[in-house]
Structures are given as C-alpha cells and as structure tokens.
Design goal:
single chain; alpha/beta; Rossmann fold; six-stranded mixed sheet; 5 helices; globular; Broad specificity phosphatase PhoE; phosphatase activity; His_Pase_superF_clade-1; His_PPase_superfam
Length: 226
C-alpha cells in the first residue's frame, strides 16, 4: 500500500503460467499464451488489485503491458476489473536470448556451437545485456510514474505486466545490487508483484514484493528465464 510519503508507485507484474507442454524457452516467440492455470492466476490477480483498490479508496490509474501474448492475456482481467485501457509498451518486452526456442538448454550446452555465447556470464554473452534491459525498463517505469502522477496526483499507482528477467534486473538495479545472478535465485514468481514506491527525498524507490497467487505456484510450470 502507498504511504503519506509516497509520490507514486509502479507495480511490476510478471505474467501467469504459459501453456508450454514441451518446456520450451519461449523468450520472444509468438504463440505462447496462458495455460488454464495461468488464466486463473490472471483472474485472481485482477481480483487482488481490485480488493486493494477498494481498501485504499483509490484505483491505479495506468495499466501497461508487454506486447507478448502471455503479458497481454495477464493484463486483460486487470483491465476489466479496474476499468483501465491496456497500453502496450515494447520497452518492457522479454529479454533477447540465444537459446530461445530450445526445449532442453542444459543438454544444448554440450554442443560446441553454443560455446561462444557462454564466454561472459556477467554481460551475459548469450542474450541482451543486463544493463540494456535495465535502461529500457527504467525509462518505461519513470514514464509510468510520471503519467500516474499527472493523472491522479501524489500516491497514484501504475501497473505494468512484464517478464521475469527484466523485472528482476530492474529490482537489482534499484537496490544497487550486482546485475549478474543465478537464474534459480530470482524472487519473481508467476503473477508476482514487485512494487517500486517512489518516495519524497529518496534517490531510489522502496521495493515491496508480494505473491498474490502463492497457493497456486506449487502446481505451475516455472522455467528459469522463461
């Protein structure tokens, strides 16, 4: 929830579970929509946001989403519940990844043709540099913050549906932590909400992390990097 010192909040939402029986690292590929469980997650998440709005006496004023199908489908119930139009923003798109489209990345790593892409895990050399992801995400977040303030004044909120890796590196950057990390250690579950609370007199936002669908996660397929 917002506090009296909060000027605006931007909620970074990860999409719901994807229908992906072949366990493909789908990245930016088209045709990967939500599974039945993912659709339930999206509906429950919309109810969660609506409940927060009723309790606070005010509704988020801006809703944005990545152009990818899974993000748009996650945003749709939120749009209906809060009466907001979905603004599509390519800046919050999933990260590029050399291994996109593969279903067994661990086995593929044994193939010498992939080795040149593994030389620098700190960048990382197999995909879009972490710094580039942070730059585009930060630009989108700051625009959303400013739009929320313009539309609703101090204490206003914006919601953006994005993807695990861009959300996680954005959080690492906001907390002034190294961007290199173990993908298995990301705190960014399906339909999780990473809230950036921008407060007066603070250079960095305060981070709040919540899992509205925690009870459903045990039944979900959750691939690191997907």
């Amino acid at each position: 929830m917002t506090t009296s010192s909060t000027t605006a909040t931007v909620h970074l939402v990860r999409h719901g579970e994807v229908h992906n029986p072949d366990r493909v690292l789908y990245g930016r590929l088209n045709g990967f929509g939500l599974s039945e469980l993912g659709q339930r997650m999206a509906e429950d998440l919309a109810d969660w946001f609506a409940g927060r709005a009723r309790a606070a006496g005010r509704t988020p004023v801006v809703l944005s989403a990545s152009p990818l199908q899974r993000a748009q489908e996650t945003a749709e119930p939120i749009s209906r519940a809060l009466g907001l139009t979905i603004d599509t923003d390519a800046r919050v798109l999933e990260a590029e990844n050399h291994f996109e489209g593969l279903s067994d990345v661990k086995a593929e790593l044994k193939n010498p043709k992939h080795w040149p892409f593994m030389v620098n895990p700190f960048r990382p050399s197999w995909g879009e540099p972490y710094q580039d992801q942070v730059k585009r995400m930060a630009a989108a977040v700051h625009d959303l913050r400013d739009r929320a303030l313009a539309a609703g004044g101090p204490g206003s909120e914006a919601i953006v549906v994005s993807h695990q890796l861009p959300i996680w590196v954005t959080r690492l950057s906001a907390e002034d932590r190294p961007l290199w990390h173990d993908p298995r250690q990301r705190q960014c579950s399906l339909t999780s909400v990473t809230s950036l609370h921008f407060e007066r007199g603070q250079d960095r936002p305060r981070i709040e992390y919540q899992e509205p669908n925690k009870a459903l996660l045990k039944d979900a397929l959750n691939l690191p990097g997907a």
